[in-house]
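Annex B. Sample input.
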Amino acid sequence: MSAPTKLNLTCPECGSDLVIDVTSGRVIHHKKPKAPAAGGKDFDSLLADLGSTKSRADEVFQRELSTLKDQGRLLDEKFRERLRRVEEDPDEEMPARPWDLD
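Annex B, continued. Sample output.
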């Protein structure tokens, strides 16, 4: 029986299938292992992750919605404050307009 010219090995580090030429010692073919579907997680854990992601999205949405509702009130307060300041201390003269300087 003649000696084999090729060796089929599995890499212990990454799990790849290797075909090695015996005479030269070089790798002839390299095949990576298939990655497990869904990152190796089962259906129940994926469903739980989906639920937690949905709850986080709802929290962010509610927080932004309350910020938008509060934004109108804050803008009204700022406007009233500026209006009060103008009424208390009106400017003596209007600022110069560029087209009036000629």
